[in-house]
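Review form for a predicted model. The reviewer records the input and the model, then writes brief findings.
Reviewer: anonymous (R2)
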Amino acid sequence: MRLGAAVAAALLLGAGLMGGCATDPPGAAPAPIAAQTDARTPAPAASSRPQPPGEPAAETLSAARARAEALASLGPIDDDPDQFLGLGGLEVARRLGAPQIVRRDGAAEVWVYQGAGCTVDVFLYAGDGAAAGNGLVARFVDLRSPAKTAAEGRQCLKAMLEREALRQAGA
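Model under review:
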């Protein structure tokens, strides 16, 4: 009988351990987890609370206002890609910033600028170093965009020019 009692105890112990592996039946809602309350945990700061929908944060409004003022001070932005033709490489870089990609294509050095919805390729060739600044002159510009209209591509170029002008202005 002693062996039977040991086997019964082992079976009961095994059943108890296996019960911890049981899962809820399909479709049953998970049991809620009680929130921990610990007196040592500080309450969240007021600034970490999320903004109610429709109410932008104060710092977002002031940053947007500063950006709008900086853009207004720039004056009108020329969105014509032909504006780069005949410019020296240094002037192209002043307007568009440093290119993301520089590659050689025959005699040309191609500067590639990538915007959110377009790509601008500026083809620079050796020119009069005194006029060009770095010895390169823009002779061809290709504004590529998956947009269906040229106006959308030009809007993308305008955004790239604005971004660089704001970066240079420190805004």
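Findings: The beta strands are 101-105, 108-114, 119-126, 136-144.
Further findings: Residues 150-169 form the longest helix (20 residues).
Recommendation: see findings above.
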